[in-house]
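Q: Could you predict the 3D structure of SMP-30/gluconolactonase/LRE family protein?
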Amino acid sequence: MERISDICCTVGESPTWSTAESAWYWVDIPAKRVWRLDGVSGAARFWTSTEMVACVAAKADGGLIAGMETGIFSLELGEAEAVVQTRLAAPAAGLGEGMRFNDGRCDRQGRFWSGTMFMDMSAARAVGELYRYDAVRGISAPVVSELLTQNGLAFSPDGRTMYLSDSHPARRMVWAFDYDIADGVPSNRRVFADMSTHVGRPDGAAIDSDGCYWICGNDGGCVLRFTPDGKLDRRIDVPMLKPAMCAFGGKDLDTLMITSIVSGKPEDAEWGGAVALLRPGVQGVAETPFGL
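A: Sure. Here are the predicted structure tokens for SMP-30/gluconolactonase/LRE family protein:
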């Protein structure tokens, strides 16, 4: 496992590999930062937004699409430190006080998906909702509702299965859905993995070329791999207590980036908030840019 310099993110989330740029992107949510790591030179830098950026995905025409505090935005990253942000859409009912978008990514057809959450997790308010956005139809009505802490979005290699988790301590569940790739509509929701029988809370996820689902075990210090039929077949222990999300990237898509969250616990002082790379021995699936 290789640590990316001395970078420490308070809440490191949403790693994604841009094949077009040969670069990694991720965010530090409370710091309002978008990070980039050049996959060739190893140079790292960040940009700062005016509001929290919770998740990002590459756009086919350059830049990023992001789920933020007040909606879904297009982000342009230039030489200046400040992000140039343009709001694309927001839920019809708006985002209430204390809410923001959380986990998000594109499906295999280039539509952007992201969900909302109430930021004070101790309140355990099931007001989170999952939305779909594309440039033609705009933002959807809520597709999934009554979520505590939306997380774990992923799509199978053929795009016909969608995964979603709720990482709140009171829920700890991963679901699978049948996914209509033509219309972008999930159906037949069922339990894929009940994390109450495993280690950690199901945070951010990735899919490998075998169709297996990788999920970060937040609070459990591990990354778990589930086969397409929901069987746990691998566990990788990591030095950070709160791994937040993982993503495949690198030239051959055989490197796994793991972001993490500062726990504040003494035993986590060295690695909490770190961003790390490892080679798990399998390849991932390239992400489809938004709008491709």
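Q: Anything worth pointing out?
A: Residues 175 and 255 are 26 Å apart (CA to CA).
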